[in-house]
Amino acid sequence: MVVAAALLAGAGVAVAQDSAPGKVSFAKCQACHAVGQGAKNKLGPELNGLAGRKAGAAAGYQYSSAFKNAGFTWDQSSFAAFMQNPRTKVPGNKMAFAGMKDQAEIAGLWAYLLQFNADGSPE
Hints:
This protein is mostly helical. Helix content is 42%, strand content 0%. The protein is globular, with a radius of gyration of 15 Å.
């Protein structure tokens, strides 16, 4: 039991460390997106609880038809593909971001977003 608790505690520390660069990368996103407690939709949808959420499904956000019909659920792979080139992953979406090319930066941003439950509380 003690070993399992130590492993779980260590995993939490690793996620926090991995997400630190993602918090910095999120600065590129925060003009249009919000995350954390009290996050609201802006020009883009709020990103709380993104992992496992169907694309185009944030409550109260007016998505383009392209996103409403995207047909995927957000996970690390779909997020990475989208962040590399939003126009290719979801043709016809209204996001004006050109994309991120650095896979490590994308992974850090994903790790940062994973810290927030659907209500914005920390994991």
